Predict the 3D structure of the following.
Amino acid sequence: MIFILREDGDGFPRVGADLRVVHSRRHPPLAERELFCVGSEGVLQGLREAGNVIVCVHDGWYPDELGGGVAVWGNARYWEVRSTPFDVVDQG
């Protein structure tokens, strides 16, 4: 699953070996950087217990400051890092 790990500028957050950072973006109002990470539910829980700030993502588009971002679907099981905008059109 994919989720956001917030980095507050005090150095890289405490992470485990079973965690992969796939993208990042600046988010000054809430954190120095937000790291889009892929890991199991156990990894996510371990990060929380270690004091890291975790944000669960929902299906949608998470833009970065460079015009790209991360598209998420399937209840955070599937994701795609894009260098261009991702426009969602409801086909209803």
